[in-house]
Amino acid sequence: MSTDGPNEALRWLKERLATISDVNTARNALHWDRQAYMPEGGVAGRAEQLATLSRLVHEMLVSRETAELMAALEEPEPGSKDFAFVRLARRAYERTAKLPNRLVEELARATALAQPAWEQARARSDLEISLVEENLAVSELPAAWNAKMEEYLGVTPEDETNGVLQDVHWAAGLLGYFPTYTIGNILAAQLFEEALKAHPEIPQEMGDGEFGTLRGWLWENIHRHGSRYEPDELIERATGRSLETAPYLRYLKNKFGELYGLSSE
Hints:
Blueprint: H1 6-36, H2 43-61, H3 64-72, H4 81-97, H5 101-114, H6 125-132, H7 141-153, H8 168-171, H9 179-198, H10 202-207, H11 212-221, H12 231-239, H13 246-260
């Protein structure tokens, strides 16, 4: 592979990462199929498939060829699409290179094998905080989970499979994952409020089953940029301000105030 000049190196890097993305997409499709359609008897075989694909993705991304292409790059113009591409590519390479290939493969296999016991996600963020702050040991999780289930729902799981092992995010190492849903709600409210300023007709259209105007606004202000901007910059570009809770609070007050006759004060 010849990289005659920085532009050629960028072209080769894009092609290589596109191939890696294709393999990763195939891996994700197998993972989805495991959750949606695959019978229980296929777990072991699917675990090996996922482990192999995870290893291949890791090997390709941290390979000598990828490192040489990164080194041959010339810094693109700041703010350009290529600049964003190179920034994300380098970040992915640096993060991935910290993990041994064998560990990636073993983790993928173990996660796939554990999946049947992690079907229903019922995480408790206070348990995650206790884990992160080292106020709760992993060995204490089952009892702590059961206590919270009794506290919140008035039931005690009969075993760990129906208790602490319900959470699929912990199996993937995604601690603190559920609070991101709240952040997504806050972000959605701010974007929607901004879209209504430009197109007040959106609610009426949505009531008629038409979403073209809203989708067009989202495409113009969010979707077409992909990963070109960091989240903070993207939300400020789209709404003229950084992420804030006020739009979401207004949404909640309007919705539930109308439903339950609550004061908007």
